[in-house]
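Bug report (template v2)

What were you trying to do?
Predict the complex of my protein with pyridoxal-5'-phosphate.

What happened?
Run completed; filing so the output is reviewed.

Input:
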Amino acid sequence: MNRRENKRNQAWSFATRAIHVGQEPEPATGAITVPIYQTSTYAQSAPGVHKGYDYSRTDNPTRTALQEALASLEGAKYGLAFSSGMGAETTVLLTLKEGDHVVSSRDVYGGTYRIFRRVFEAFSLKFSFVETSDVRKIERAITRRTGLVWIESPTNPLLRITDIKAAAEVAHRHRALCVVDNTFASPFFQRPLSLGADIVLHSTTKYIGGHADVVGGAVCLNDRALYERLKFLQNAVGATPSPFDCFLTLRGIKTLALRMREHEKNATGIASFLQNHPRVRRVFYPGLSAHPGHQLAASQMSGFSGMVSFEVKGGLAEARRVLSRLRLFKIAESLGGVESLVELPAVMTHASIPKEERQKAGLADGLIRLSVGIEDDEDLLSDLRSALRG
Ligand SMILES: Cc1ncc(COP(=O)(O)O)c(C=O)c1O
């Protein structure tokens, strides 16, 4: 993309960019939709002379389109797509060196905790888990070897909010980079680079793909040297998405704006219904004024997204009972698709975090996490109403 095109693309609104950036009609035929370039290699007119593509682990035109679209949505100069969110995380972590240290939000996604503790610790990286919603705790945990401050905001599954601007400032004061996992907010509601973060990371499996039909990951950033390093690692490590997965993700992106508005509308209604329900002990949703991070979320996000967690009175046994009575909400891992899902983090997505660590993070065994879909809101409420009935 040349500079003029880039300027024009950034002038368009989010919904327009989601449909058009990186997705111009295909020059040979005029195909409106970016084709699935299902090829592993490319003909060269002479050795080393090609049209920008030589091997599909390195680059593929469908992936190029996706990467441009992703970068545009995050307001970034560069985007890189991966075969999963974990593939993106691995590639970012591989920018570190033996002995380096990471300060991480405490209630991160269980798989993030697992790759930190059970994969990268064996390569002599060190990790500290702190309550990053209190930025002073980040500063206290930083060491001379801290290379990354790793933030999830909102967190999975407790929806805690970290002040991204303040966290990035702390990281930069200590010459560390600030990485924000923006999976829960999606770029529609939160743009961490504009708040000072250095790297935005996504499991595109979630809201960005949006239809529970593809696993993927992404990294977006502005710094050229860091991009070159990550681009090198993307190819060297090889956690790259297939052309078909890129196509599916691009197809999801086109409706991201529409979907996110509906997710938020439905989640807001459900959070206030649960808040007033006699069988519910606590509700976690940053859109509720009672949520401790509400003001901060309102200042750094343009909406509160579609994830709601809650604790029922009666702990794990009662939580299991509620899940067994839900009809529309399907019991499943993952989130961010058009269909509503429900899960028990302590038993499912966060089971890889030891119980003591979960308890320290405030993650009760009976916590229920909802990924609120875009079905009719009255149908969702009536499903919850009957499941919670005695
Ligand atoms: C916040 C968050 N980050 C990263 C991941 C990992 O992404 P993936 O499952 O696409 O590898 C997940 C998966 O649930 C997640 O919820």
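What did the reviewer find?
Residues 84-86, 109, 111-112, 152, 156, 181, 183-184, 203, 205, 215, 217 surround pyridoxal-5'-phosphate (CB under 6 Å). The longest helix spans residues 256-275.
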